[in-house]
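Please annotate this fold before class:
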Amino acid sequence: MLNQSKIFKALSNEDRFKMVMEVKKRGKMYANEFEYMFFLEQSTINCHLTKLYESGIFKKERVGKRVYYSINVEPMFNLYKEFKDLFTETYSKSSIWAAFLK
């Protein structure tokens, strides 16, 4: 299991969070698409993509000269499941959380 703190740290940057949301919409993107979309330098994009990949949020696939990035669902789902379990155990008697966790 990947370190959850790496996921939170990667998502704490607004640009990286926007990158994740855009990949979620499109399914996958290659590195140059991020440059055109976010108007950031190539080195900045590469740094962001590396952090997202190393945190486990993104997975990558090389097709010819292009590297495509997509969301790695498993660590994100595991994190969601851990939080759901935490809130279920801690707040199961609260009517607000009970409605939220259904």
